[in-house]
Write a structure and sequence with these properties.
Elements: H1 2-12, H2 15-22, H3 30-49, H4 54-63, H5 71-91, H6 95-118, H7 122-140, H8 146-154, H9 156-174, H10 182-202, H11 206-250
Helix pairs in contact: 3-6, 3-10, 4-6, 5-6, 5-8, 5-9, 6-7, 9-11, 10-11
Length: 267
């Protein structure tokens, strides 16, 4: 049992930190604390990513509609997530530093397929599923050189910003966030902010740090829109309820008024 416990702890920290904590009982080592915190955050983000876009998927299924969701934004987001996942996997970074992208890629691909399906393009939805599966195999199956993945990762920042901000523009144009899920938006924001710290601590890769910083900014814009349009829609509903009685009174037909009877003159 002790060996299993040690193996688990060595997954969370290196041998030096294990000795500091469990042999020398030095619990105030700053470097070890940051490393342990980063690993714990990474695993927590991965656990959360398993369900992060499920509220969005269930909302589309419940309404049988993807109204207000920009397909262009979803596809760009999916491309950026997939490139990031492949780049991290081929580089051999710890799974705790990028594992959430695997679950995000799967869920984003499902959303893209649903947008096509509910948009009336059943054939395109099927073709997209097959095509995306082939792309993932090419990128992560050893068929793509690391240099190409590095170049693609460099384009991730503008692609990610374009994808997220195009969704923000769609929200602005529609005056609402449509079928976007508030839970998903806020979980994505929290995850991208935490990933800045874990990327600094576990990989030190500048490209990953910049990518997550840009993602945090774009997710913040959409989260703020979610709050703004949430309040705006509540105000609109209150105005409609207040205006309903007045509108009903105004709509009453004028014919209901009885004409005054003419008085007969007597000689």
């Amino acid at each position: 049992m002790v060996d299993y416990g040690k193996q688990f702890m060595l997954y969370l920290m290196d041998e030096k930190c294990y000795d500091n904590y469990f042999v020398e009982f030095d619990l105030l080592d700053g470097d070890c604390f940051r490393a342990l915190l980063s690993k714990g955050l990474g695993l927590g983000i991965i656990a959360g990513s398993v369900l992060v876009k499920v509220p969005q998927i269930t909302k589309i299924l419940a309404n049988k509609s993807a109204r207000g969701i920009s397909l262009f934004s979803v596809l760009l987001d999916l491309f950026a997530i997939t490139i990031h996942m492949a780049y991290s996997f081929v580089n051999g970074f710890p799974f705790s530093a990028w594992g959430d992208t695997a679950f995000l890629a799967l869920q984003t691909a499902i959303i893209a397929m649903m947008v096509l399906f509910y948009g009336g393009s059943t054939v395109l939805a099927g073709a997209f599923t097959v095509g995306y599966s082939a792309l993932v195999y090419v990128l992560m199956g050893g068929l793509t050189p690391l240099n190409y993945l590095l170049i693609a990762q460099g384009f991730n920042v503008p692609i990610l910003l374009l994808g997220k901000l195009s969704q923000a523009f769609t929200n602005y144009r529609n005056g609402s966030t449509g079928q976007l899920s508030a839970v998903t938006c806020f979980m994505l924001l929290a995850g991208s902010l935490a990933r800045i710290f874990t990327s600094i601590q576990e990989t030190g890769d500048q490209m990953m740090i910049i990518t997550y910083g840009s993602s945090s900014f774009a997710n913040l814009v959409i989260a703020l829109q979610m709050l703004y349009y949430w309040n705006a829609s509540d105000k609109q509903q209150k105005k409609k309820k207040a205006a309903a009685p007045a509108a009903a009174a105004a709509a009453a037909p004028a014919a209901t008024k009885k004409p005054k009877a003419k008085s007969k003159k007597t000689d």
